[in-house]
Amino acid sequence: MTIDKAKQLLEIPNPSQSQLINGLEDLSKEYGYVQGMTIAGRRDLVSGRKTLVEIQSLIDQIKQKI
User: Fold this and answer.
1) How far apart are CA 39 and CA 46, in angstroms?
2) What angle do the packed helices 17-39 and 3-11 form, to 10 degrees?
3) CB-based contacts of 17, cutoff 8 Å, min separation 6
4) Whole-prediction pTM value?
5) What pLDDT does residue 46 have?
6) What is the pLDDT of residues 6-61, one digit of tens each?
7) DSSP per-residue codes, 48-66
8) CA separation (Å) from 27 to 18, 22, 45, 63?
9) Residues near 5 by Cβ (< 8 Å), separated by ≥ 6?
10) What share of the chain is helix, strand, coil (3-state, %, to 5)?
């Protein structure tokens, strides 16, 4: 799931539980990937992606809806 799709999911008035869980899983993977590349010193490979703070914020918002 892209960051934009996660934002769209949060705008849905009553998203299903499975949509929220799938979104949470996808964002967690994205967070792990960006974090791993940053730790490995390869931030250049993920420069077009959102920051960890932005991804974590979306994760927290989805958790609140579950």
Assistant:
1) 12
2) 150
3) 66
4) 0.78
5) 74
6) 888 899 988 899 999 999 999 999 888 888 888 888 877 776 667 888 889 999 99
7) TSPPHHHHHHHHHHHHHH-
8) 14, 9, 18, 11
9) 23
10) 75, 0, 25
Residue among 62, 8, 9 at smallest CA distance from 31:
62
Give the pLDDT confidence score for residue 59 in this predicted structure.
92
| The two three-digit tokens of residue 52, written as one number | 């960890």
The structure tokens 């974090």 sit at 35
Judged against a pLDDT cut of 60, whether residue 1 lies above it is answered with no
Tokens of 62: 């989805």
Task: Look up residue 39 and give its amino acid.
Answer: I
Residue whose token pair is 């769209």: 8
